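seq:
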Amino acid sequence: MERFRDFGERGLHSGLSTLNGFQKFILRGNVIDLAVGIMIGAAFNGVVTSLVGDVITPLIPAAGKGLSALVIGPIPWTGGTLRVGSFINAVITFLILAFVVYLFVVRPVNALVDRFKPHQEPQAPTTRDCPFCLSTIPLKATRCPYCTSQLLPADTQAAQPRAQSA
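struct:
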């Protein structure tokens, strides 16, 4: 009997340690922030849906009753109707939500990333254009592999325009 009690206590303790790990996971800031964000997003979706359905679409004159009553049908081969107004409502709702997400999520995150991301200096060029055939060739090439023209070295070519302008 003592042996069975020992197994039971070990099972109980391992189960409680698993629950403690789950509790630590749930109470971390990221999970709670995510849950709050989802709840606010769902509530905001309801607000935007109501705004579009109750305020915006009645202002659009269509079929006398507003946009949400716009229906095409009946379809001869199915007998159903196309509710175009409901689809347009959904598109307007999506566009408003996407715009708000862009303004309040995407732009601030991009600004933070740009602020803390190290800026890199532009790389020195490794190629140049042949002045005769306009092909791209290595910077140190003295002869164009495409048109076989003799080329000045890159450092001499860069110094010549400066000398001529002086």
